[in-house]
Specification:
It is a single chain. By secondary structure, the chain is of the alpha/beta class. Helices cover 36% and strands 21% of the residues. It has helices at 36-46, 65-75, 91-99, 119-136, and strands spanning 8-12, 26-31, 34-35, 52-57, 62-63, 81-85, 107-109. The strands form two sheets. Strands 1-2-4-6-7 form a five-stranded parallel beta sheet, with no helix packed on it. Strands 3-5 form a two-stranded parallel sheet. The longest helix is centred in the last third of the chain and has 18 residues, at 119-136.
Length: 137
Amino acid sequence: MNCKNLKILRIRYCNNVRILETCLNTLEFKSSQIYASSIVHILEKSGTLLQRLKLESNGGKIYEESLLLRTFKSFCPNITYPNISCIRFSTQFQDLTCNLQKLQFLTLQYLNDILAEEMEEEEDLRCELCNLQKYHR
């Protein structure tokens, strides 16, 4: 299905979105489990147009998280309002958020697996995010 004029897409509990061919500026995806491979093609197609992203997993898991983060970093550098639940606070995630040049608001829910040795890195990221917020005001 090709939806040329579609700019905002909200998907609730539907895992078969591979049929969509569209460029979006807003994507909201809510499901009991999120599989990155099911939405990567939308992220790639939307690319630099994508500004707002909400991923909400009620089941507490985002599968193929590394693929998802690589796709954000490669194709979606203009995300300004990410809202992500159930993501690991990994070094890869921290690198991504630091590379989002237009980041304005970051909402995270149900962070998982914060390792003790990453606590110092987390503090550094917090400082960087605070500096970004000050810069964008």
